[in-house]
């Protein structure tokens, strides 16, 4: 069953900005799905339409089979949303926010309190349950919004940049929690600027740019499309000119650092053999950027180049070749 | 982290929609009531202080020189008007500030993403306005009883007129909050429209004292009907026909409710 099914979704704002140009998107039940794109690509508009915070201009959206035009209440009951911006009453106590939110979904007070305790404990906020929300740290506020989104036990959890501005330790705790939530059967859609986050958590990914889906496939398939990777090599001795490595693009960053671009059909051994032959000793090596980030930049750049094939068409061709339904 | 139970695979039961809606409505009302009580220094206390000043100055000091109005002591005559004035301003103020605050702080989204129907969200906020109106009305009544005796002519008329008036102005506050873009906009209508209409709505005088043209103009003021309907319930005297007064109150309530729900459906001011 599809947790989310979007067809030909479009949105033009009153000021004339076309945010979505007829996107199609399917998210399978139980999936952990990444929706990526640069700022202003249309991610938040898409999420806004799914959650009824933005009126669509055209197309259809179904959540677990419920059409938002005809069964809006049933569709909304299935969704939990963690928005990008803080949107709880900052003058209310933490537990009041959760109990009230459960109430808006028709959950009786006693059960709401029970679930509030469960989720506040899960997200390590129980000790702060009587605190006024305004007094929480940034990371706590993010976790409070996750707890609030889950208190009515939705089947589809949508997170719009949930870890923005959160330190790495809390981010990793949140990843662990989200993985466990997904394992319980909750379908998760995640937008994030931390592409490492998407690569670590998500099984499928769609990349949106300028209101169009330019890529939509499984995470391994998307990463396989990356033809080259750039490695950063640290050398023991000081270099003054870049070493000669036929078949590789080499750049000298500084006296001890090289950047080598390696295509997928070349092995890394070649680099070390040739460097060793030139008396260059490599002491450490790492990827220059996260792989998904590299692919993302290339896709977005490619879609924006003059004369590039229509982005949606290219994405569809790629997806079809990979044998994945959309 | 301890493991949580798997989510239900079946779609959520929607057969008992009415029960779910009732819980949602009650949650909005409890939240609004909590807000009124939490900030009692802004919601319940000032009307009591203002009413005390009105009764001292207009009732005790000036009222003695005025003598009788409509066959009653001036203090007795203005008491229903002062109670109604506080109900009007507080019903309005509660909804306009609470709903605009929710828009401004974005926590209105908590309601918008929930399965609560739009009419129920409007009804929830309206009930919050009625609650504050009635609470403040009770405070001002208690103040009034320290200065004068309140005669009860027709209790049902009192209850119906105060409820209808509170509904009308709660809904008015809601509509104002939907259109407001900043905090100036939520004080503009109460300051420049509502207060003059209330003062010229027969709170402090009978319009029979006015010249003909001013009487005719006063009949275009809807607050005149509300104040007089309420006063009739206490004293049995009114400057207007009571049937007409109730028809106007009901008419305003129905139209404003339809407008408020329509604005929610269209998403004016709350959805992009």
- The SSE string of chain A, one letter per element, is EEEHEEHEHHHEHEHEEHEEEHEHH
Element order of chain B: H for helix, E for strand: HHHEEHHHHHHHH
Percent helix of chain A, as a range, is: 25-40%
Portion in helices of chain B: over 70%
CATH class bucket of the largest domain in chain A: Alpha Beta
CATH architectural name of the largest domain in chain A: 3-Layer(aba) Sandwich
The rounded Rg of chain A comes to 23 Å
- The percentage of residues in β strands of chain A lies in 25-35%
From the N-terminal CA to the C-terminal CA of chain A, the straight-line distance is 13 Å
Could you say which structural class the secondary elements and strand pairing of chain A correspond to?
alpha/beta
Greatest contact between two chains: A-B, 50 and 40 residues
How many distinct domains of chain A? 2
Tell me the span between the first and last alpha carbons of chain B: 38 Å
Strand count, sense and barrel status of the largest sheet of chain B are:
2 strands, antiparallel
Largest beta sheet: strand ordering of chain B: 1-2
Number of helices of chain B: 11
* Quaternary structure: heterodimer
Taken from the alpha-carbon principal axes, the silhouette of chain B is elongated
Rounded Rg of chain B: 21 Å
**What is the CATH superfamily classification of the largest domain in chain A?**
P-loop containing nucleotide triphosphate hydrolases
